[in-house]
Amino acid sequence: ALSSRALGGAPAVGAERFRARGRRRRARVEARNRILFEPHECDAEACALRREDARAGHIRDVLRAGSGARVRVGVVNGGKYDGVVEHAEDGGMTVRFGTEETSAEASAYDVDVLLAMPRPKVLKRLWAPLASLGIARIVLVNANKVERYYFDSSALDVGTIRGEMLRGLEQAGDTRVPQVGVGLRLPPVVDRVSGVLSSEEPKTNGFKWLLEGQRGWTMDADVLLLAHPGQGRTSVADALADALGKRVLLAIGPEGGWTDYELDLFENAGFKRVGLGSRTFTTDVACISLVSAVRERQQSWLT
What we know:
- Helix 3 (120-132) runs parallel beside helix 4 and helix 3 runs parallel beside helix 8 (283-298).
- The chain contains eight helices and twelve strands.
- Strand 7, helix 4 and strand 8 form a beta-alpha-beta unit.
- It is an alpha/beta fold and 303 residues long.
- 33% of the residues are buried.
- It has helices spanning 13-26, 54-62, 120-132, 158-172, 186-193, 236-239, 260-268, 283-298; strands at residues 35-37, 46-49, 70-75, 80-87, 93-100, 111-116, 137-141, 179-183, 207-211, 223-227, 248-252, 272-274.
């Protein structure tokens, strides 16, 4: 079809508006359902924001919160508060902490994920959703169908990970940053998470923490689930039928699935196979679907 410009006419007004909307959509909008502050940014009672800080812009331009307005705030890995906005003359502002909200129950952080290293662009997309779902620990591992160069990507940059995690936490209104670790060898990590390696053996061969490593391996899973595509798999609901309130570790493989050797490795360590039916999903869809299925079965959505 010929455009109005090709026919000698003026460009269609509707087309120009459509292109303008597209340009606006490309500008990334941060969803902040709780404004988060790093501990060093605050004193015991308040946090100060400069005018150019994106959080100040969100309070001023999105929430349209004036002096005295209340906003939801929190300290990273700390408390959640009902904050009060105090504007300063230079365009900056101070957010004063009010009443502290009730702390999340331990059951809100009862899911760990062991994930075969996905493609870097997929992993970058996953950091924020996994944080928003309240995952306690994310362990990335090597596998037969994982490309070695994935481990050299910027998706594993600590600054990138933490920034995306905080974005997910602000979306969900949470404050607790998940642990993140990377294992270049699968067998030692399986031994660690299944309890073969005890706490008296602090070193896991080929493994290192990237975020919140100071917590260590202090939380052992009660139920070990192994996600693998295919018919005839046990559903997540059936696998957790007698496990209400238990801590769950989900092992999720690469998009090509685990190899027979890897399946045997997991099952010999006590993992139970589960699936999402006959459909094969991408890593990000599988992660979010499986974690959501566990959360719903455990009734542990509280934050």
